[in-house]
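Retro notes (design track)

What went well: tokenization of the new backbones is finally stable.
What didn't: we kept losing track of which sequence belonged to which structure.
Fix going forward: every design gets posted as structure first, then sequence, in one message. First example under the new rule, 220 residues:
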């Protein structure tokens, strides 16, 4: 082989920029369960840790599940433009610190976001080429209600509020790249894995692809 050959031609793989994988759904449709299984199966996936003003729930840890901030701290991050997206949900604010996400993408890590349609729209406005968005739908309203009650995380009043908001949240399905109906968790995880595998091969994510093809054309 010609001694000028460098990079992928000499046996190393093409590098790529990471992607931002947004999973959205009405509360209880399964996006958190799907996200956890994806993270357990794929070492190249990492979960975006959001900042929030909501109270910490039993078992949660600051900096691991969320960055728990008071409203003043959260507003300072907004003013300093340190959030990739943010939204108010059920009287609390949620947002994604931008720096950690960009660092991950630059080294080829893929970042999962568990956010709503408002956050997805904001990311699309700022970084559409990095974004892959999936909306998770429940198989039925009755099943959604059952799942919300079975997880036993919230009082009845909160469950009722989540059910009341679900139709509005589901109305945004057309703004997403892909739709997965969560009949079965294992099947849904496999469908999302197939989406990720295809999106990782997108031409615009490949770093140095033009030079790689040029060297091939030149016979290296």
């Amino acid at each position: 082989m010609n001694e000028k050959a460098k990079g992928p031609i000499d046996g190393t793989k093409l590098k790529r920029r990471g992607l931002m994988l947004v999973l959205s759904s009405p509360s209880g449709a399964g996006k958190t369960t799907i996200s956890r299984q994806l993270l357990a199966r794929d070492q190249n996936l990492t979960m975006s840790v959001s900042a929030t003003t909501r109270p910490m729930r039993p078992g949660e840890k600051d900096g691991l599940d969320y960055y728990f901030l008071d409203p003043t701290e959260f507003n300072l991050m907004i003013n300093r433009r340190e959030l990739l997206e943010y939204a108010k949900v059920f009287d609390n604010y949620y947002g994604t610190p931008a720096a950690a996400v960009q660092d991950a993408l630059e080294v080829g890590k893929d970042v999962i976001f568990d956010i709503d349609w408002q956050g997805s729209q904001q990311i699309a406005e700022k970084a559409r080429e990095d974004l892959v968005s999936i909306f998770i739908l429940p198989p039925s309203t009755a099943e959604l209600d059952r799942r919300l009650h079975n997880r036993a995380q919230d009082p009845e009043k909160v469950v009722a509020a989540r059910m009341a908001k679900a139709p509005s949240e589901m109305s945004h399905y057309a703004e997403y790249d892909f739709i997965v109906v969560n009949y079965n968790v294992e099947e849904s995880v496999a469908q999302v894995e197939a989406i990720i595998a295809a999106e990782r091969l997108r031409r615009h994510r490949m770093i140095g692809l033009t030079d790689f093809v040029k060297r091939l054309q030149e016979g290296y």
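Added context from the reviewer: The chain is about 40% helix and 20% strand.
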